[in-house]
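User: what does the whole thing look like in 3D?
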Amino acid sequence: MDETNMNTQTNIPQTSSSTENELKTENEILISVSDVSMKFTKYEVGVNALKELVVRAFKRNLKRKKFECLKKIDFTIHKGEAVALIGRNGAGKSTLLKIVSGILRPTTGTVVCNGRITPLLKLGAGFDGNATGIENIYLNAAILGYTKKQIDEKIPAILEFAELGDFIYAPIKTYSSGMMARLGFSIAVNMPSEILLIDEILAVGDIAFTKKCHKKLDELRAQGLTFLIVSHSESVKRYCKRAIWLEKGLVKEDGDINEVFSHYTAEMTK
Amino acid sequence: MNHSTQNIRQRTFLLSVLVRRNIKNQYYRSVIGVLWTVLNPLLNMLVMTFVFSMLFGREGIDLDYSIYILSGNIIFGIMRSSTSGSLPCLVNQRDMLQKTKVSIELFPTANTLSSLVTFGFSFIALLIVMVFRRIAGEYFFCWEIVLVITILPALTIFSLGISYFLSTLYVFFRDIKHIYSVILTLWTYLTPLFYSVSRLQKPIVEKFMVFNPMYHYVTMFRDMLAGNIPSATQYLICYGFAALSLTIGWLFLRAVKNKIAAQL
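Assistant: Here's the predicted 3D structure for the full assembly of 534 residues, as structure tokens:
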């Protein structure tokens, strides 16, 4: 009911077809990933320590095993596009998102982003358990790169969406994980942004909240935000027309989501 | 131009949020709250005065002994609390640094600034002791106390450099924590906090003491409290150590910055 209401307001038909419209009008490239490779060091022991280094130096065994997590990834995302990133566990999807958002620097290759990115890799990352909900909104949004004025403006919208009531004045450590996720999501989607990177976060929270999240994301899509979503479920078809399938650090397929998903499912159930 | 000023304003805001959070987590949420920041150095001083005035004589110290101990401890405390607080600060923010893009140098900076705030509260404790000693006729206030403000930037920059260095090093070597706590203890005893160098009457100690940066900061701070105006050389040494420390810390952080998120 609300969705139809929203569509009449923005005068844009359902998300899937809006992508095409926008692609024709605004062909501006927002994200351009070229030749990106990422190598990680393999550790035999969980944590690295100075004494380990010293022992290794004595053994003349300073070389560590490396493994290549991403191999020469190439793709571009245009303004207003929504792209799903699919693949097995450990295929490098999350690493790719981190590289696109600028958290990790790729070993080789470049990523160019022309727009403000909100990485939604973990809801409530960096919340301080001792601080109240309100304090955490300021902390979290400041870390995402917003000024005090921008946050002040959005506080009512964030509070309304999170629906935490008086709990917002209680320390975060008293929150349930669902409440924490609500607050984290609410901050991320209410602050102005151009690109949203989402990493399988919609599985948290109750049905009502998940529904609300999807509705909010629909709204943001209609506003022309660019999405890059990591997912395993076909529910992303709601937003995305295009999918990129990562397999062992390589782009295996890049194209229409229905096609890619059918190939992917066939491969996985083989 | 406009963009960069907004950028600076945003960073300053984030820094202030982080500092406030540190201070709050440190004291405000305990029962007697902010009072504790003043009380803590006072109680420490009482214990130390009681213990050490029996061990050491007071010759060669031109300040009242309780003021001597307290001043040494609170000025040393800036370095101690900012470096030991900064050491684990990046690793503790693991979640945040891996999931959001944020300049890492803000975290050690926030820790250093918070210990400066703590120093402000401790300074109140020092003033209280000074008033009591004034009443007892053991201390006389002088205008040179305001000069203290000229030494604080040097010590803050010095601590900041060490904080940058340690917090990044800890990401790569987690056993640094234990090593540094030993170093810090050693450093505490090698700095004349409750003894005076001249009273030891060992020329070799005096010779090597000049290489201890904290010795210069502590001495200069006490000189001001005693009513002496520090010489230009003293300022030069203090700011020289600060610049050296910041350069090393900053360069190290720059060099390994891109590897940090992957190492956490």
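In plain terms: Residues 232-263 of chain B form the longest helix (32 residues). Residues 16-263 of chain B form one domain.
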